[in-house]
Amino acid sequence: MYDNVFQPIQVGNVTIPNRIVRAAHGTFLDFPTRDNPDSSLIAYHVARARGGVGMSILEASPVHPSAVLGTINPWSDEVLWGYERLAGAVHAHGMMLFQQLWHGGNAYPNTSGESPWSASAIPNPFGGTVPIPMTKAMIDEMVAAYAAAARRVKQGGLDGVEVHAAHGYLPAQFFSPAINRRTDEYGGSLENRVRFCREILQAVRAEVGEGFPVGVRLVADEEYEGGLRTDDAVEIAKLLEPDIDFLNVSVGSYYRFYKMLSPMDDPLGYEVPKTGVVARAVDVPTIVTGRIMTIDHASRIIAEGVSDMVSMVRALIADPDLVRKSRDGRPNEVRPCIGSSQGCTGHEEPHIACVVNVAAGYESTAYVDAPSSATTRRRLLVAGGGPAGLEAARTLALAGHEVHLAEMTSALGGQVNMAASAPHRSDFGAITRWLADEVERVGVKVILRTFAEPQLVADLDPDAVFVATGTTPRRDGFQVVRPGQQLTGADLPHVYTSWDTLGFGGRAEIGQTAVVYDDTGWYDAICVCDKLLEAGSEVTLVTRFDRFPARVPGSNSLIDMTALPARERLLTNPRFHLLTDSCLVEITRSHVEARLIHPGATSTRQLPADTVVMIGYDHPNRELADALQGTGRPALLIGDASGSRSLRSAIRGGTMVARAYLAQLRESANR
User: Fold this and answer.
1) Which residues sit opposite 58 in a β-bridge?
2) What is the DSSP letter of 536?
3) Phi and psi (nearest 5°) for 321?
4) What are the strands of the beta sheet with 611-615, ordered from one edge?
5) I need a surface site. Which of 45, 94, 226, 337 has the fewest CB within 10 A?
6) Domain spans, the chain
7) Among 25, 20, 19, which Cα is nearest to 7's?
8) pTM value > 0.90
9) At the fourth CATH level, which superfamily is domain 9-333?
10) Contact indicator for 646, 547 with CB cutoff of 8 Å
């Protein structure tokens, strides 16, 4: 099965055992040092090596002290001890390890406090300073720095290097006619603009010798007006081909940064139509990437001759054993990436994390699945079949306990089913569909269309109850910024919740003009606005925040990797309007009165509305937990019922509360 994926491939003098690789990606995990020999970075990469990945490229790392210092700093000999430790750890499992060599140019400030270096004095949209056009002496110094860094990579025991010449970083700043305004031998013609990168590659080759793999990462499309397009990338690839052993192709730049790692708004394999053109233009081994989530998809890309290797970064964050499970004929057991990008690029944590895999970034202290540990088998009840309940039930059953799950509706999935029904959000449902299959596989006894009431608890007589009963929308017009004020008109029949709008627990009659009030800053408003626009409404979004959306992880950074696609889609729709820093003061049958939230604001705006949707903080359904208080039976709140709101907190809460309970059982058994 998938034989073409599991064929080895030769890159330089290195044999990569299969065609599944991982392109460089920032982890912010600790690099191994003598003071921290068993670092989190080692544990992270070893988990994927053990899971069967053929090759990983370590994250972009600076070759020169003028660049922003990273977790890994190959401009210094101090990196050698950590390289040796890291290489030895992953080689024990057969994975090859390369290093991406990087300099940000105008994308980051110079660490010396001076202006950054670049091809020309063109500021980066996020850099904040005008860079210094590099002199010939600066160019020579930088070329030598790339070569010295490559020497350290080889000396440290790693297997190859990749020069990062993509995504608007320093070599790409020389490529781009929009950035490179030089009139010397490094500017003007494409051959001149490629000269800097060719000099880097040739210097690297001279330093590491023949056979040691040297590659380059390019973009097939910078995705902005005036930037490099696919035909440019083909010509650049051909010019660089004599100096490389492999080519890694992506898309995007700082002018449209999220395209490098687009969330679920873009389709699976969204980069391949462009990157495949560049990959096919050269004869060296190639890598493509871009929301490739299954071995089946990777196999088709290879079979069609698009690329020799396929990078699966986020899919392997979600399940480090993806390759091994697929090779062993168990692809249905692979925990799916849903492409929300909240944990991996949205940076909910100080380092890499994952919405669906609680162990991602915590491999040295956590485990993906709870091992079987039941010395005394307990009967346990999980109330609620949303993501928290499903994850808890799976964790408890894997540990060897008898688990019952009661769900009041006719289907598992909870509020994720609502989110997945919205336009551009269907991938949310992948994780709850997988969890539903998993609880069946591990033997959880599922009871649908059943309220988890005290009588059910009494009849089943479980040793503990995990209360994952979710929330219920408020319908009283409550607004966080006006907690003491009643919203007049909130009880009118054309005022709905997000549940009603998405067709759950009620059904909204969508009119021609709609006002959506966003009190949470979360995905709900995106889903509702997309749904209303799809139905043909003119939509005005009113939010108390100064931007939209405000609290989706990663959306409040300059480089928005999570919500920017939705903002682009909505803000360019002529039927969508946005009113920030505002609240509602009255709803009538024909319009809504809104005003600024700032003290002293008195004037209002009248917004036509025959449909109003209030998106606020829901009521946690804690009645079952309250009823079990004082009965001597543990009732553990998880998911939205505990007050959390995000999918990640629901899944994390489900597994962590279950694991804490299992730990208590083990402790009791050992006394």
Assistant:
1) 99
2) T
3) -100, 15
4) 495-497, 611-615, 513-518, 538-543, 576-579
5) 226
6) 9-333, 379-421+428-468+641-670, 495-617
7) 19
8) yes
9) Aldolase class I (3.20.20.70)
10) no
